Amino acid sequence: MKLAKNLLSFFYPRMCVACGDALQQNETSICIECMLHLPETGCHKERDNPLRSVFDGRARVEEVAALMSYSKDNKVQKILHGLKYGGQKEVGEVLGEYYGKQLAAEERFSQAGCIVPVPLHRRKLRKRGYNQSEWIARGLSKAMHIPYVTGVLVREDYTETQTKKSRYARWMNVKEVFAVKNGEKIAGLHVILCDDVLTTGATAEAAIHKLEEIPGVKVSVVTLAAVVY
Ligand SMILES: [Zn+2]
């Protein structure tokens, strides 16, 4: 087995998703050098950070935090691209766990009751084979000792949405695509909604509004990267 594995890594060396260098045996998805130089925001330490204002007047949020700042020329783009389109799901778990350890030190996050990954549309899930946000949730969950819950926040079937809903509803887009199933499973909990990247906040906003239909639920948002910083 070991020989086979070594042979495999000889012909197909595992590479760092951020810089492309060969990974050492003890590294997963991303090399230590890149881990040491992540453009971290540190924004989880302050409640009124600039990310929070993304939701001003749009949705009620408890906390908002992102591990890294996103800009087009840095390695963050490569990480997110690998995570989403390159089959590099493990990097979601590695970085989720890394950030989870930091969040666990902040009571505003550590007191949360569950983690809910933003669901992928069924068709996209079939094509990609995994939901990248779920892998981030796995990492966060591991480090924070808070369970992650799938199947409660779901995407409505695309074709159904397309055919049954009015043109106006389609134009309104994201607001229409989330649904809640068996909401009682997370009733009364502080939910950490997690996703790979926070840009305009439209997706998170739509998800928050759906989650808020569940009695007693309050929502925080945690992503690997954010454009605002
Ligand atoms: Zn690297």
Give me some keywords for this one:
229 residues; alpha/beta; Rossmann fold; 4-stranded parallel β-sheet; two-stranded antiparallel ribbon; 10 helices; 6 strands; binds zinc ion
Q: What order do the helices and strands come in, and which of them pair?
A:
Elements: H1 2-11, H2 32-36, E1 64-69, H3 75-85, H4 90-103, H5 107-110, E2 114-117, H6 122-128, H7 132-144, E3 153-155, H8 158-164, H9 167-171, E4 178-180, E5 190-198, H10 202-211, E6 218-226
Parallel strand pairs: 1-6, 2-5, 5-6
Antiparallel strand pairs: 3-4
The structure holds zinc ion.
Description of the structure:
By secondary structure, the chain is of the alpha/beta class. It has two domains: 1-37, no CATH class; 38-226, 3-Layer(aba) Sandwich (Rossmann fold), CATH 3.40.50.2020. 38% of the residues lie in helices and 15% in strands. It has helices at residues 2-11, 32-36, 75-85, 90-103, 107-110, 122-128, 132-144, 158-164, 167-171, 202-211, and strands at 64-69, 114-117, 153-155, 178-180, 190-198, 218-226. The strands form two sheets. It has a four-stranded parallel beta sheet, sandwiched between helices. A two-stranded antiparallel ribbon has the order 3-4. The protein is globular and about 55 Å long. The relative contact order is 0.17. The model has no long low-confidence stretch (mean pLDDT 89). Residues 16, 18-19, 21, 30-31, 33-34 line the site of zinc ion.
